[in-house]
Design brief:
By secondary structure, the chain is mainly beta. It has 5 domains: about 120 residues, no CATH class; about 35 residues, Laminin (Ribbon), CATH 2.10.25.10; about 40 residues, Ribbon (Laminin), CATH 2.10.25; about 40 residues, Laminin (Ribbon), CATH 2.10.25; about 120 residues, Sandwich (Immunoglobulin-like), CATH 2.60.40.60. The protein is built from 3 helices and 33 strands. The chain has a 6-stranded mixed β-sheet, with no helix packed on it. The radius of gyration is 65 Å and the shape is rod-shaped. The N terminus is likely disordered.
Length: about 425
């Protein structure tokens, strides 16, 4: 920065830090008859001119402290002791009728009768370094460093703002400035220094199903029935049916995001996994005729004839046939046949009680025995007698359906006192279902 001298007053004291050449005022012109000299001048009768007064010699302690006195036309200057003045050359002699010559201080230029400041920055007459910026001031100019730079010697050096930890995450220094950057998952806040979390879920995160924002990142999650793929984004359907064969009693059907259990024809789903037989006879969904009776079995139904008695038997009720004693053909056959129907599942655990036989009538003093008269060629069943009136049909071996057994279960009554013996048959038709349910 350069300090500038101003036009001399009657007494001028100026403090500057650098050498400043100052333009000087001309002494007053010579006149034939002296009347009066301006302030700071005295009349010299020899030269018949007004001569400058050296105040630095005539005024005691004109400048005090560390200041040094410099004489000046019409006044003096108080400058630091390290300063010096380069005086302008002496002006040429003027005619005795000429006026004092008017000139401007350095940094000003004469325009008409006035001294106007020179804009050294605009006229490019400054000596600022290329890295500096020129700013015009009255009577001179000043060289300053741009924002973001500091002066080292005569050069402007970039300030590394990142050394002062201006940024929360990362600082990137650039010439004359800096910028703050944030780690992935964050963005620069309004103060351009702090970092705030980015809600990726609201900004189009690539999660296929569900997105959960977390501090600095996000997580993808899947709906029930799906699992997250290795890319952390995609959701793949879970094949629940492949995990266990016990999810469904009959068949598991995988679906997107879930599974369902299905049952075979003739069954319906009970709850979520079990299959129950549909009773077509009760629902009226069978196709039996009026002369037939609907018998429900596992997974289906059977239509049996209402009149099931064969000669020599005659029908006495819906399910009972009797062989009259007055017929010769009835002597060697059971007196009565009662028809019963039942259904069991496949793979039933054995031994298993299947059907209880109970006598409906008994003769006094008669002894009863129970046996399988026919229909069990493979010995899949046996009779366990409970008492004189009851017996139990037991499944001896596991059977697989669909299958059908027609067993004649005979009760023989013997009365030894009266030498009397008779028998009756329970004709039991057993349908074995195709499944274990």
């Amino acid at each position: 920065m350069r300090s500038v001298c101003v036009p001399p007053p009657l007494l001028l004291c100026a403090c500057v830090s650098l050498l400043l050449p100052c333009s000087v005022s001309q002494p007053p012109a010579e006149s034939d008859t002296y009347t009066e000299c301006p302030d700071g001048y005295h009349w010299d009768p020899e030269s018949r001119h007004c001569k400058d007064i050296n105040e630095c010699e005539t005024i005691p302690e004109a400048c005090k402290g560390e200041m040094k006195c410099f004489n000046h036309y019409g006044g003096y200057l108080c400058l630091p002791r390290s300063a010096s003045l380069i005086p302008a050359p002496e002006p040429p002699n003027q005619s005795e009728h000429s006026e004092v010559f008017n000139s401007c201080l350095l940094g000003y230029e004469l325009q008409g009768d006035s001294c106007v400041d020179v804009d050294e920055c605009e006229q490019d007459t400054h000596d600022c370094q290329p890295s500096q910026e020129c700013f015009n001031v009255l009577g001179g100019f000043t060289c300053q460093c741009p924002e973001g730079y500091r002066k080292v010697g005569t050069e402007c050096i970039d300030i590394d703002e990142c050394r002062y930890r201006y940024c929360q995450h990362r600082c990137v220094n650039v010439p004359g400035s800096f910028s703050c950057q944030c780690e992935p998952g964050f963005q620069v806040a309004g103060n351009n220094r702090s970092c705030v979390d980015v809600n990726e879920c609201e900004m189009g995160a690539p999660c296929q199903q569900r997105c959960y924002n977390t501090y600095g990142t996000f997580l993808c999650r899947c709906q029930q029935g799906y699992e997250l793929a290795s890319d952390g984004i995609t959701c793949n359907d879970i094949d629940e049916c492949s995990y266990s064969s016990f999810l469904c009693q009959y068949q598991c059907l995988n679906q997107p995001g879930k599974f369902s259990c299905v049952c075979p024809e003739g069954y319906q789903l009970h709850g979520t996994r079990l299959c129950h037989d549909v009773n077509e006879c009760e629902l009226g969904s069978h196709r039996c005729t009026d002369g037939q009776t609907c018998v429900n079995i596992h997974g289906s139904f059977k239509c049996v004839e209402t009149d099931r008695c064969q000669d020599p038997y005659v029908q006495v009720s819906d399910n009972r046939c009797v062989c009259p004693v007055n017929k010769l053909a009835c002597r060697d056959v059971p007196f009565s046949i009662v028809h019963r129907y039942m259904s069991i599942t496949s793979e039933r655990a054995v031994p298993s009680d299947v059907f209880q036989i109970q006598a409906t009538s008994i003769h006094p003093r008669a002894y009863n025995t129970f046996r399988i008269r026919s229909g069990d060629d493979n010995d899949d069943f046996y009779i366990r007698q409970i008492n004189n009136m009851n017996a139990m049909l037991v499944l001896a071996r596991a059977v697989t359906g669909p299958n059908e057994y027609v067993l004649d279960l005979e009760m023989v009554s013997v009365n030894r006192v009266m030498s009397y013996q008779s028998s009756s048959v329970l004709r039991l038709t057993i349908y074995v279902g195709p499944y274990a349910f």
